[in-house]
Amino acid sequence: MTSVTNLGFPRIGPRRELKHALERYWKGEDSADTLQATAAALRAQHWQLQRQAGADVLPSNDFSLYDHVLDTAFLFDALPQRYRALADADPLAGYFAMARGVQTGGIDLRALEMTKWFDTNYHYIVPELHAGQEFALRGDKPVAQFLEARAAGFDTRPVLLGPVSFLLLSKTTDGSDRLALLERLLPVYAQLLERLHAAGAAWVQIDEPTLVLDLDEAAKAAFACAYAFLAQAPRSRLLLTTYFGALGDNLDLVARLQVEGLHVDLVRAPEQLDAVLQAWPKGRVLSAGLVNGRNVWRTNLDNALTLARYAQGHVGADNLWLAPSCALLHVPVDLEQEKALDAELKSWLSFARQKLGELRVLADALDGREGAEGPLAQQRARLESRRQSARVHRPEVARRLATLSEADSRRASPYAQRRVLQEQAFGLPVYPTTTIGSFPQTQQVRQARAQHKAGKLSDADYETFLEAETERCVRFQERIGLDVLVHGEYERNDMVEYFGEQLDGFAFTKLGWVQSYGSRCVKPPIIFGDVVRPKPMTVRWSRYAQSLTQRPMKGMLTGPVTVLQWSFVRDDQARSETCRQIALALRDEVNDLEAAGIGIIQIDEPAIREGLPLRRDAWSDYLNWAIEAFRICASGVGDATQIHTHMCYSEFNDIIDAVAAMDADVISIETSRSRMELLDAFVRFRYPNGIGPGVYDIHSPRVPSVEEMVELLRKARAVLSPQQLWVNPDCGLKTRGWDETRHALEQMVEAARRLRADLAQAA
User: Fold this and answer.
1) Alpha-helix residue ranges (DSSP H) falling in 454-502
2) CB under 8 Å, gap of 24 or more: what pairs does 535-542 form?
3) Per the domain annotation, does 681 fall within a domain?
4) Beta bridge partners of 232
């Protein structure tokens, strides 16, 4: 019988139970015991859901209270010294301090750096290592959760992040070689594997996703060394798990590793199957990732079945496992929870639970089980319905795309000329201060939005409420002395969802939440058809906010690449085509904002780097269309209109040419957690345009001092001209409370004043 296995399940719960439990705990409303009890109940529920959906082999240790990479660092005692005393006294407090920072009871700790998990919208906490790092087992989380599952009646396969990927995803604080630590790390991995073996785990899933990246010889040698070492110790059989792309030139290496099974992603890279089958030694297990773990569309089961049968013919029925392409962390839990979706659209979709059901259908068909043809025929009908639907294709969109010219993606004048006109238009001081866009979404704001959506608050009363909140926000910014204001975005639920709700071609769920990091969850829109903007989306609130003040008001938009990356995107056409459709819709919005008197417009693109293909040879094509899409949005305005963009935590060194090619007048970037390290790329490139390196971390409740922000700004000033520098937080303030926001922004404004005083004294 063909086995259906799963690599990982969403952690947050069908109704974000984990999010709510975490936030109650952080507020001091629940105890640690209550939090852990909620977590245990969720794990049990998730194992039961997977089994009911048709999975034979379930994962354990895929659950995390915040992030699996942080879990790994904590498990192997890779704690920076500054957290150690707290972690020794209270492990949970130490763990969350590394994730979020802490500022209470005389303790003041910054959070560890956070960055994107490969090319997804999930963020992981970056482990911080150093030369001579010691490792040891701290706790027994993988063993404990395996035994917990067994006690509940589920025999599971524990999931571990592999040793080489763990090191490659980490950073060293002293510039030393991460891989040099492998020799110290491997004995601790071996110790853990021995404990799992002793506990009764038949298999252990060991994730090495970095095997789909371009690897140098040192990294390849590290893999060979690691798995030769781990083969020597008593251990369970190992399923080496890769995902998000093809093994490519790493395949020969992988085929030589001493592991008993291999998982490959046949959704992202179906073309690799032949090469894998040729290289993979006979008698070993092949786990075929046939169902997309990163998107929500129903699988073409006929195509998947063809691949499965082909693979089975090479490895045999006993050695073929069927699985999602990757862990189901990146999709919502259960489509059946969506009661408001129309039947046609719902029939095209598949969430985590349904994806396991699709794999069950494939396995039954592969085994020739009676009744397997019925579900296959039903799936064919669903796919044909989608292909034929008039909701999907709009001829006028195709016509407009066909008329795009090079001039549509180029500003009229170069930056140096635009800058002169913009300085005249706005008269801003040196080191101008601003924010990234959103302000705290209080319980009152969320409640009013919910009441309005439920029909309990009239349109007129809701508008009055939003006007009052907007004016309060504007007056606050004036009072503390910010130079360029924002309207606060109180009308917006999410920076992508808000726009998607006003564009044709988008659909929305009620409970389609996925984890972004920690307790932060997003509900990605579903792009099912051609994108059209029926009417202006933001002009009303930007114009109203500008009417309240003489200071410049920024219009705030989410850029086309970010809308694309943070949505579940249709899979029936190239992503580049969908992105250009979004860009044209946003171009109309930018032009309307300018016509309404908004002279500064920010087009946020935090996901540009996230969308970069994992292999360098595919970068050029992606960057060409991604940068073109941004420029299509931004290039319809006059020279005096100042275009800003914002990017979240990213490594810019390797894409700085493309970032510069966006030709934004000002770019703001998240840099505070990295202590301005991310600014280095802009310095080496001699980036000429305006830059706002974030001076405090908004992902943490910690409020830095004025002196701390001044220190960061002086580091930036040492390498950039005062005329280039803007002063802003790392990111939007939506998730923060008002007290910390008020305090932090007042101190940020004071930090800018001190920098201006420095400049005045130097003159």
Assistant:
1) 459-480, 497-500
2) 535/502, 536/589, 536/592, 537/498, 537/499, 537/502, 537/503, 537/589, 538/589, 538/593, 539/589, 539/592, 539/593, 539/596, 539/598, 541/466, 541/470, 541/487, 541/491, 542/487, 542/593, 542/596, 542/598
3) yes
4) none
pLDDT in tens, 265-288: 999 999 999 999 999 999 999 999
Distances (CA, A) of 656 to 440, 608, 635, 681, 684: 32, 11, 20, 7, 9
Number of domains forming the structure of the chain: 1
Q: Which among 10, 23, 9, 8 is positioned nearest to 520, based on CA atoms? A: 23
Q: By the 8 A CB rule, do 99 and 112 touch?
A: yes
Number of separate helices (H) and strands (E) present in the chain: 28, 24
For 12, the 3-state DSSP assignment is coil
* Structure-token pair, residue 555: 């219009």
Q: Please state, in angstroms and rounded to a whole number, the distance separating the CA atoms of residues 155 and 47.
A: 10
Whether 646 shows a pLDDT value over 80: the answer reads: yes
Q: What is the dihedral of CA 250, 252, 258, 264, to 10 degrees?
A: 60
pLDDT for 675: 60
Whether 217 and 257 have beta carbons less than 8 Å apart is answered as no
610 is in an annotated binding site: yes
Please determine, for residue 649, whether its predicted confidence score (pLDDT) is greater than 80.
no
Q: Do the annotations mark residue 195 as ligand-binding?
A: no
Q: What is the pLDDT of residue 689?
A: 92
As a whole number, the mean pLDDT across the chain is 94
**Is 8 inside any structural domain?**
no
The answer to whether the annotation marks 479 as part of a ligand binding site is no
- DSSP 8-state symbol, 16: -
- Which of the residues are catalytic? 699
Q: Is 734 assigned to a binding site?
A: no
The single-letter code of the amino acid at 305 is: L
> What is the Cα–Cα distance from 112 to 489, expressed in whole angstroms?
28
What element of type H or E holds 62?
Answer: none
Indicate whether 26 belongs to any domain: no
633 is annotated as contributing to ligand binding: no
Q: What is the pLDDT of residues 173-183, one digit of tens each?
A: 999 999 999 99
Domain assignment present for 590? yes
pLDDT at position 233 is 84
**Rounded Cα gap, residues 582 and 505, in angstroms:** 10
| The pair of three-digit structure tokens given for residue 342, joined into one six-digit string | 């129309």
Query: In which element (H, E) is residue 246 found?
Result: none
User: pLDDT tens digits, residue range 664-710?
Assistant: 999 988 766 656 566 677 777 788 899 998 888 777 778 889 999 99
- Size of the chain in residues: 763
Written as one string, the DSSP assignment of 278-323 is HHSPTTSEEEEEEE-SS--BPP-HHHHHHHHHHHHHHH-GGGEEEE
Determine the Cα angle at 45 with ends 44 and 51, to 5°: 90
437 annotated ligand-binding residue: yes
CB within 8 A of 418, min separation 6: which ones? 411, 639, 640, 642, 665
- The answer for residues whose C-beta is within 8 angstroms of residue 744's C-beta and 6 or more apart is 696, 703, 704, 729
The CATH number of the domain holding residue 505 is: 3.20.20.210
Over 60: is that where the pLDDT of 340 sits?
yes
Which residues make Cβ contacts (< 8 Å) with residue 281, sequence separation at least 6? 255
Range of 752's domain?
418-762
Please give the Cα distance from 610 to 119 (Å, whole number): 5
Q: Tell me which residue has tokens 């044209």.
A: 584
Under DSSP, is residue 670 helix (H, G, I), strand (E, B) or coil? coil
Between CA 614 and CA 619 the distance in angstroms is 8
What's the gap between Cα 500 and its chain centre?
A: 18
* 567, 527 contact by CB (below 8 A): yes
Confidence bin at 115 (pLDDT 50/70/90): confident
